[in-house]
Amino acid sequence: GANQASSSVGHGYATLTPDVSAAIGISDLRATRQDRLLRVQADLKNASAYTRQVYYRFEWLDHQGLAVWDDEPWKPLIVYGNSRQTISVSSPSFKATSFRLVVQSPN
């Protein structure tokens, strides 16, 4: 498909599992440091006409690529057909200098 299965910015990147990337793409990914925390916004775009449910979670990493926070639980997100949904988060720790966003299908 026309969707990118991964997208990266200066502070990290997002990955879509193959089962998701057929319908859902990352149309924009932004990350900035604010008040010593990493703020991340990711726009997920549903190119299909059907409503899709996906699950996502962030992994927060330090400058050596080591996890600085426990794995978050998977969070559900509904992306309606032919529309866009924005995920907006701040890192839970000052130690996080980069992130990885993973998006997958419910099954």
Structure description:
- The chain has a five-stranded mixed β-sheet. Strands 3-4-7 form a three-stranded antiparallel β-sheet, with no helix packed on it.
- By secondary structure, the chain is mainly beta.
- It has one helix and eight strands, in the order E-E-H-E-E-E-E-E-E.
Helix content: under 10%
Order of secondary-structure elements: EEHEEEEEE
Which structural class do you get from the secondary structure elements?
Answer: mainly beta
Strand arrangement, major sheet: 1-2-8-5-6
Strand content: over 45%
Overall number of strands: 8
Spans of at least 5 consecutive residues whose pLDDT stays below 50 are: none
Q: How widely separated are the two ends? A: 21 Å
Main beta sheet, described?
5 strands, mixed
Task: Report the mean per-residue pLDDT as an integer.
Answer: 90
Secondary structure topology:
Layout: E1 6-9, E2 12-16, H1 18-21, E3 24-34, E4 37-46, E5 52-61, E6 75-79, E7 84-90, E8 98-104
Parallel strand pairs: 2-8
Antiparallel strand pairs: 1-2, 3-4, 4-7, 5-6, 5-8
Give a short synopsis of this structure:
This protein has 107 residues and is mainly beta. The protein contains 1 helix and 8 strands, in the order ββαββββββ.
